[in-house]
Here is the input.
Amino acid sequence: MHLLNIEAFLVAITLLTITPGIDTVLVIKNSSRSGGVDGVVTSFGICMGLFVHATLSAVGISAILLQSVELFTVIKWLGAAYLIWLGLGGLKLAFKGQHGIAMNDVASRSVKVSRSLREGFLSNVLNPKTAVFYLAFLPQFINPDYSPFLQAITMAGIHFVIAMAWQSCLAGTVSSAKRFFASSTALRWMDGVTGSVLIFLGSKLILNDQYK
Here is the structure.
């Protein structure tokens, strides 16, 4: 491994991972929706998105996006709109009380797994903060004497492992709590809270962009 300051990278990326944010909210939301598997698959989708950002950072496309105000603004709004859409879906479930747990329904669970994977992946890929973070963060640890692409993918792989471990534990905790407090009221409360937080995060992205 040719990365520079690998110890500093591990500390920084671990702190980033355990800091509550959009990824945490989405994993909690989907784990409360239909169990730990849903949350773990959501986490897998989120973590797969890391490789997209690492690749873009390595080849310099993220730098182009950062310099192009119009294109970068479009990406920010797409990401914000997607978060708001997810949040509205959570609020809809909260008001209607339709949670569709059906843990033993294999066909239903398969559909939810596919949806969770897509939600996690798109949430991460469309998050401009992740793109900017990778653009600013990864170069600090890349050794210019070796392939930037391989080093960026390696760092994304490390981030993948740490994030999967943390978010899977989070999904299991939420799932266990849900089964323990098996209550329609509690589930509707969770959908309402996480949905509201997603809408808040998406709105904040838009407002921050407007008042720069």
